[in-house]
Amino acid sequence: MARYRVGMETRARILEATRDVLGEQGLESATLKAITDRAGVGAGSFYNLFESKEAAVWEVLAEAITAVDPDPDGHGTETVDDLIAAFVAFVTGETATLARIHLQLAGIALTEPEVAAPIARSHARRVERFAAAMQRDDPDVDDASAAGHAEVLLGALTGLAMRTVMARDFDLAAAAAGLPRHPSAAAPAVGHRS
Amino acid sequence: MARYRVGMETRARILEATRDVLGEQGLESATLKAITDRAGVGAGSFYNLFESKEAAVWEVLAEAITAVDPDPDGHGTETVDDLIAAFVAFVTGETATLARIHLQLAGIALTEPEVAAPIARSHARRVERFAAAMQRDDPDVDDASAAGHAEVLLGALTGLAMRTVMARDFDLAAAAAGLPRHPSAAAPAVGHRS
DNA sequence: GCGAACTTTGAGCGAACGCTCCAAGTTGTG
DNA sequence: CACAACTTGGAGCGTTCGCTCAAAGTTCGC
């Protein structure tokens, strides 16, 4: 839709504004006026460059889904620590705004099937990646408990990220360092107190 | 605002409708029309019983925040297993709709300070409860690692609950049974790979 | 069973929403 | 440098939003 240089630049400014509004004020506050005011652009310019408001929002949401998993076609050599460090960087680094949006997405997915599908795919991919790294670290771990512990680790990381974003002085890196890396550390799955 | 019996009943129907709409369609779709249509009530009746749309929504959100912690002034005798079982019941039992709303709340809290405050308070209370139960189960556990592991456990439970709500065939009880109950099971907090 | 208190409905208000349209200006190509 | 292609802003469209209000009906203590 944009062919000239100025158009491309305006498009980028609009996406940046959309990102900021979504991150700071949430999906409900991401009105056309909020976005175009922030981008310093008229409604006409917006619709010259995007099909609809939804299209711009969706482009940013997709970015927030993707960005949590850097190097998605990695060489299969990362350790669990690497993956955790990458997540910590995603939440605390330059992508912090995208991380804020990412953390809103799970809640949104509960009531928006169109968001739920890619979120589910992304989650499955991350579980696979964590489980594979776990088995690389410790070849004795079987598939099922690796996947199960990956689920636990991801859940815990998300919970801690939430705290980080809401209380800026929370030290995510330190908290993440204390997470159990191996399923062997888990309590026995059977025979525990009824 | 309601003094007669019929008024009280209508009020309850409206709250039920609000709960259903929030659980099934989310905050953004919880318009006055959606709520009053579902409750089988005119707009005038709604405003005879509630200060504003926000007031009704907020009443349900507060309920969803509170309901995750049953018996909040408990006698301090529950085990970690009890607390986990209570959470599983919250998500899979009769309160499933409230649980769906509860899981949306964290994302909402990121951009709505009014929601963030009670959520943070509720979370702190739950961490305390889990940590206390942990120390009751194993008196050797110190305060810091109990609190830290409570955080991990709650994060993991929330993550698993999310999966349960999105994929109805997911067995939350079984997954929760595999969670590490004790901080002792965690990886060493210091000295791990740089 | 009277009457004050309460409940109910739905048309309609002003504001805000997403979006369209077009006249004027800018960009880039041959 | 001419001209088509693209970009721009903003007035204004139709719709939906939360909410009000007056008139008619219902409830319930006395």
Structural notes for this entry:
The structure is a homodimer of 194-residue chains. Chain A has helices at residues 5-25, 32-39, 43-49, 53-66, 80-92, 96-109, 113-137, 143-166, 172-177. The first copy, chain A, is an all-alpha fold and 194 residues long. At the A-B interface, helix 6, helix 7 and helix 8 of A face helix 6, helix 7 and helix 8 of B. The structure holds a DNA duplex (30 and 30 nucleotides).
Give the ordered list of helices and strands of chain A: HHHHHHHHH
| Overall mean pLDDT of chain A | 91
Give the oligomeric state of the chains in this entry, treating copies of one chain as homo and distinct chains as hetero. homodimer
Residues in helices of chain A, as a percent range = 55-70%
Secondary-structure-based class of chain A equals mainly alpha
Short note summarizing the structure:
2 copies of one chain form a homodimer. Chain A is mostly helical and 194 residues long. Helices cover 68% and strands 0% of the residues of chain A.
Keywords:
homodimer, 194 residues, mainly alpha, 9 helices, 68% helix, DNA-binding
Write the layout of secondary structure elements.
Two copies of one chain form a homodimer.
Chain A: H1 5-25, H2 32-39, H3 43-49, H4 53-66, H5 80-92, H6 96-109, H7 113-137, H8 143-166, H9 172-177
Helix pairs in contact in A: 1-2, 1-4, 1-6, 4-6, 4-7, 5-8, 6-7, 7-8
Chain A binds a DNA duplex (30 and 30 nucleotides) through residues 2-7, 10, 31-33, 41-49, 52-54.
